[in-house]
């Protein structure tokens, strides 16, 4: 027999096991960081990771901005062309309607 949680894709046993694993990892981290030398080393590594992530994020933001600008420039030219075609078509329809 399945419970409502299991039918929705959440198995209570899986959630419990995940809690045990996360709890164990947190306990191990607490023991490792209780030593000042280990804390200092962890802080250095986290700082390096943060700096690396910030550099990567800046690069992605710059590439995204360039792509956005290129796309807008490309679309603006096409939008003007499309607008002209639509205006021409509207005038053609008006002329056809007036002739009937």
Please name the defining characteristics of this protein:
100 residues, mainly alpha
Description:
- With 100 residues, the chain is an all-alpha fold.
- It folds into two domains: 1-32; 36-100.
- The chain is 89% helix and 0% strand.
- The mean pLDDT is 80.
Write the layout of secondary structure elements.
Elements: H1 4-7, H2 12-32, H3 36-99
Structural class: mainly alpha
- What is the count of DSSP helices, taking H or I runs of 4+ residues? 3
As a percent range, the share of strand residues is under 5%
- Give the averaged pLDDT, no decimals: 80
The number of domains is: 2
Shape: elongated
Which regions contain 5 or more consecutive residues with pLDDT less than 50? none
Q: How big is the Rg? A: 30 Å
H and E order: HHH
Number of strands: 0
Helix fraction bin? over 70%
Q: Between the first and last Cα atoms, what is the distance in angstroms?
A: 73 Å
What about the largest sheet? none
